[in-house]
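Q: what sequence does this backbone want?
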C-alpha cells in the first residue's frame, strides 16, 4: 500500500460490479485500507443485495460512528438495515477465500442504535431491546450513563434492563 488513497476510487468502482465476488473484493480492499475516506465509500455496501457486503458496510458504519466521523442521521438507516438481517446469528457462505468467513445478525445493526440515537429516537429504543446483543444492551447502559442529561425514555429502558438475562448487562 504505497499509495493507499489512490486505490480508493478503484476499489469503490468494484462496488458497482455485477458479480458479488468482485464487489466483495473491492469492499474488502476498502476495509483493509483502514482509512476514513475508504470507510466512507464502503458505507454504501449496506444497500447491497449480498449480506457479505452488507456486513462490510456495517463494519464501516461502526468504525465511523465510534470515531464520531459520521454526520447525517443514521438511526432510521440502521433500522432499515437491521430489518433485512436474520434475527439469529447466521454463518455466511465463503465467497473468495476459504479462510475468510463471516456471520451476521440483526444485532450487528441494532447494537449501533444507542450511539446514533437523537433525543426523539430514545423512546423507540425500547422496542429494539430484543434485537440488541448482550454487548449492545450493555453499551446502551453505558451510553445513558455517559450523557450529561438522561435521554427521554431512558428510565423505561433501564427498568427493563434490570431484569436482563445477562449479568454483564445488569452489572
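A:
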Amino acid at each position: 500500500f504505497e499509495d493507499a488513497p489512490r486505490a480508493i476510487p478503484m476499489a469503490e468502482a468494484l462496488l458497482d460490479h455485477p458479480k458479488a465476488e468482485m464487489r466483495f473484493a473491492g469492499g474488502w480492499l476498502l476495509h483493509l485500507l483502514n482509512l476514513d475516506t475508504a470507510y466512507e465509500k464502503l458505507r454504501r455496501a449496506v444497500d447491497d443485495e449480498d449480506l457479505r457486503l452488507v456486513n462490510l458496510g456495517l463494519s464501516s458504519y461502526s468504525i465511523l460512528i465510534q470515531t464520531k466521523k459520521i454526520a447525517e442521521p443514521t438511526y432510521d438507516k440502521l433500522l432499515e438495515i437491521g430489518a433485512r438481517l436474520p434475527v439469529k446469528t447466521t454463518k455466511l457462505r465463503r465467497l473468495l477465500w476459504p479462510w475468510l468467513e463471516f456471520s451476521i445478525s440483526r444485532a450487528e445493526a441494532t447494537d449501533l442504535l444507542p450511539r446514533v440515537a437523537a433525543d426523539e429516537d430514545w423512546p423507540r429504543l425500547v422496542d429494539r431491546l430484543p434485537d440488541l446483543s448482550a454487548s449492545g444492551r450493555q453499551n446502551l447502559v453505558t451510553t445513558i450513563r455517559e450523557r450529561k442529561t438522561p435521554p427521554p425514555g431512558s428510565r423505561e429502558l433501564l427498568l427493563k434492563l434490570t431484569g436482563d438475562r445477562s449479568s454483564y448487562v445488569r452489572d
